[in-house]
Write a structure and sequence with these properties.
The chain has about 300 residues and is α/β, with parallel strands linked by helices. The protein has 11 helices and 11 strands. The model has no long low-confidence stretch (mean pLDDT about 95).
Length: about 300
């Protein structure tokens, strides 16, 4: 029986590349066939990575009842297929807080507080002494630079930097930071995309207490690309909030050069933002200096406010 390897909904580069790199590794060391898949459409950044290193697009599959699965980059039910309870989870690779996924059979767990799932997968290749193909190394290197914002994110560890250095040498890329910057310039292209596409490009819904909070993030090299888009983004955020019965929806417009984020908020309680981050919203927005990571600098400050 085959095992599907996939990451979270609205897949980012870590989820897509992780499916590819982990499936390849598993196919070298196990008797079962591992198949990379994905739960949704890929972002322009991920397309850039696949094109650059001749990666095959994992195939789209959203239902997994009766299948064996190996999950990358999340353990949150909200980010997993609706029928995940009817699948057999054989393993998990993740670098987020432990979510609410439970299993009925023993599983393999590779969970580490590092900057990227592909950093852990690199450690798995080393552990099993499997050589990483050049093209896969290039994609893994890009995924780590994406998740760690080229090492600027507070989630980045020495292990991530070392992994990128080693992967770059396998991939034959000398100036990997320049490639990382090229990747973020691709990521910054917002022209022609609808407000809905932009909000959902990197979007997650978090269960907080009894409420649901949607948090999207767009990382760009220059925030001015949003100057004439904020209004339409806020309008669409309001729609998404209403349609999905969210308590709040937040969009982080992250400037990777200025190293901070403009937070846009639409929700039932504007004081939430001041309580969490000590700064008041003005016109539904506030600049948060030094904030680059949703996982480390946003969610942990919001979550406790919903718990009684
Ligand atoms: Mn991810
Ligand atoms: Mn990740």
């Amino acid at each position: 029986m085959s095992v599907y390897v996939f990451g979270h909904t609205t897949p980012d580069s870590d989820s897509i590349v992780g499916a590819i790199s982990l499936a390849y590794l598993k196919n070298q060391i196990s008797n079962e066939e591992y198949i990379p898949s994905r739960q949704g459409e890929i972002s322009p950044e991920t397309k850039f990575i696949l094109d650059k290193f001749n990666g095959d697009l994992p195939f789209l599959k959203t239902s997994y009842a009766g299948e064996k699965v190996y999950i990358v980059d999340t353990t949150d039910l909200a980010l997993l297929p609706k029928d995940i309870k009817d699948a057999t989870v054989v393993g998990v690779v993740d670098h987020h807080k432990l979510g609410d996924l439970t299993t009925s059979t023993p599983l393999e767990c590779w969970i580490r507080p590092v900057g990227c799932s592909n950093t852990i997968i690199k450690e798995m290749y080393d552990h099993y002494r499997v050589e990483i193909p050049k093209q896969i190394a290039g994609m893994m290197m890009c995924a780590i630079m994406s998740d760690t914002v080229i090492f600027k994110s507070p989630t980045c560890t020495k292990v991530d930097i070392k992994a990128v250095e080693e992967l770059a040498s396998i991939a034959g890329v000398n100036d990997y930071k320049a490639l990382g910057m090229e990747m973020f310039i691709v990521k910054s292209a917002v022209e022609g995309a609808s407000a809905d596409e932009l909000i959902k490009r990197d979007y997650k819904v978090f269960d907080m207490g009894d409420e649901k909070v949607g948090v999207g993030q767009l990382e760009v090299v220059d925030l001015s690309v949003f100057d004439d888009k904020k209004e339409m983004l806020l309008e669409q955020m309001k729609k998404i909030k209403e349609q999905n019965h969210l308590h709040s929806i937040i969009l982080l417009l992250t400037d990777i050069l200025k190293e901070g984020s403009l937070l846009l908020y639409v929700g039932d309680d504007e004081s939430l933002i001041e309580k969490a981050f000590g700064k008041k919203l003005e016109d539904k927005e506030v600049w948060l200096d030094g904030v680059l990571s949703r996982k480390k600098q946003i969610i942990p400050f919001l979550q406790p406010l919903f718990e009684k």
